Amino acid sequence: MAAEQDPEERAVVRPLLTDLYQATMALGYWRAGRARDPAEFELFFRCCPFGGAFALAAGLHDCVRFLRTFRLRDADVQFLASVLPPDTDPAFFEHLRALDCSGVTVRALPEGSLVFPGVPLLQVSGPLLVVQLLETPLLCLVGYASLISTNAARLRLIAGPEKRLLEMGLRRAQGPDAGLTASTYSYLGGFDGSSNMLAGQLRGVPVVGTLAHSFVTSFSGTEVPPDPMLAPAAGQGPRVDLAASVEVWLERVCTYMGLGVQDPHPGERAAFVAYALAFPRAFQGLLDTYSVRRSGLPNFLAVALALGELGYHAVGVRLDSGDLLRQAQEIRGLFRTTAAQFQVPWLESVPIAVSNNIDEGELARLVQEGSEVNVIGIGASVVTCPRQPSLGCVYKLVSVRGQPRMKLTEDPEKQTLPGSKAAFRLLGSDGSPLLDVLQLAEEPPPQAGQELRVWPRGAREPCIVTPAHLCEPLPPLAEARALAQLSLSRLSPVHRRLEQPELYQVALSEKLQALVERLRARGPQ
């Protein structure tokens, strides 16, 4: 029997997930005898997403996996032969069959790093034909991952550190690959977990989930559990008929709430009992299938209190409709008074989870002072990035055979910076980022405490800066997540704020600025 394929391999991007013009350029390079010319490309973006002043670098893990497995299979080459001119030299296709990325070097920002416009997320060097073929897949892998991570980081900044944020957007994602990417990189950006089991299996993202309304509505109340007996949590003592205990508690709860025992929906109660029997240590009630106050709450309390007699504590309730903030406050109030009435103090702090099309505005409302919401599930607003669907990354040639290359265009914003470069982040005395400096790779690195003459992007005059510190040379998913949160905590509040932030400065060294001006003056050659 053949060995089972590594599940991660199924997530690898294939070489032909690219644009046709990459293949036509490859043929052009090969015919010109330039396929093996050493070249370097940089992958970066021009504007921060969502009107903010920062982004998070992400997708490196996927890029490395793609590069390690990059090979054109026979079927790939046969397809290329069908779309390229029929008189293409067969030797070109033999060249393609032999390609891999063993001669490619990638320098990258660590996953979770803060990144700003114009600063390369990836610097890719190697044979010209190969590194050209890598353009589209790398843009695809880095752009969406970084966008998702940044979007998640914004939502985390709004929520603050105490609220639990759960990504629940797989069913809203633009396809299964986007769903896996969103679940992975929303976790990197600061979410606490995901409903996506594949992200848990492949990427180690904590997975979470309970039950849907369909589970509740599937019960009518006439069902009899095949085994309603439940042993105490401590393992000592006789088993108890949970369904019967729930009916006893229902009468007490309804009397306390001023309801008739006929008011709570029997099917909902049967669903809660069935779930509690399956998950006595993780019972959570979905309250809004019928009526929160007249059905969901009394049914939940009856089951939770019956479980409590056996030493089990319910782990939460969830709301998925209505005014979530107001309902959470009312539920917390009832939990507190019920806890006092029945002398069960653990009930006071049962977490309240909410979901239902939550965007940045609604999230800000749900986390305001005095909110009783503890857990927030977000779907479409994190995985589809509705405020900005693309980061707009680009992949530009900066050198060939050691000679700088620069794109000159009528649009100054689309001009590129020539030459192989190094990036340094200068820090102020408080450890917060001051500015990023791009310089030619051959220049000596800046030193802490020494004056540095730099040219901020778009400025007409240079300025002098004196960094107090330098970041270490740009260095498992959980570590990237921790780096992202640490990086954001160190970013100045004027750059971290989500609306109308001050733009973070990226500057050029004098030598790089001089090269730019020299190539501009020379014009197209």
From TrEMBL:
Its cofactor is Mn(2+); Mg(2+). Pathway: Cofactor biosynthesis; NAD(+) biosynthesis; nicotinate D-ribonucleotide from nicotinate: step 1/1. InterPro entries: Aldolase_TIM, NAPRTase_C, NAPRTase_N, Nic_PRibTrfase-Fam, Nic_PRibTrfase_pncB, Nicotinate_pribotase-like_C. One of its GO terms (molecular function) is nicotinate phosphoribosyltransferase activity. It comes from the Eukaryota. Pfam families: NAPRTase_C, NAPRTase_N. Residues 16-142 form the Nicotinate phosphoribosyltransferase N-terminal domain. SUPFAM superfamilies: Nicotinate/Quinolinate PRTase C-terminal domain-like, Nicotinate/Quinolinate PRTase N-terminal domain-like. Its EC number is 6.3.4.21. The keyword Heme does not apply. Residues 421-515 form the Nicotinate phosphoribosyltransferase C-terminal domain. The keyword Secreted does not apply. Transiently phosphorylated on a His residue during the reaction cycle. Phosphorylation strongly increases the affinity for substrates and increases the rate of nicotinate D-ribonucleotide production. Dephosphorylation regenerates the low-affinity form of the enzyme, leading to product release. It catalyses: 5-phospho-alpha-D-ribose 1-diphosphate + nicotinate + ATP + H2O = nicotinate beta-D-ribonucleotide + ADP + phosphate + diphosphate. GO terms for cellular component: cytosol. One of its GO terms (biological process) is NAD+ biosynthetic process via the salvage pathway. Keywords: Glycosyltransferase, Ligase, Magnesium, Manganese, Metal-binding, Phosphoprotein, Pyridine nucleotide biosynthesis, Transferase. Belongs to the NAPRTase family. Catalyzes the first step in the biosynthesis of NAD from nicotinic acid, the ATP-dependent synthesis of beta-nicotinate D-ribonucleotide from nicotinate and 5-phospho-D-ribose 1-phosphate. Helps prevent cellular oxidative stress via its role in NAD biosynthesis. PANTHER family: NICOTINATE PHOSPHORIBOSYLTRANSFERASE (PTHR11098). NCBIfam families: NAPRTase_put. This is Nicotinate phosphoribosyltransferase.
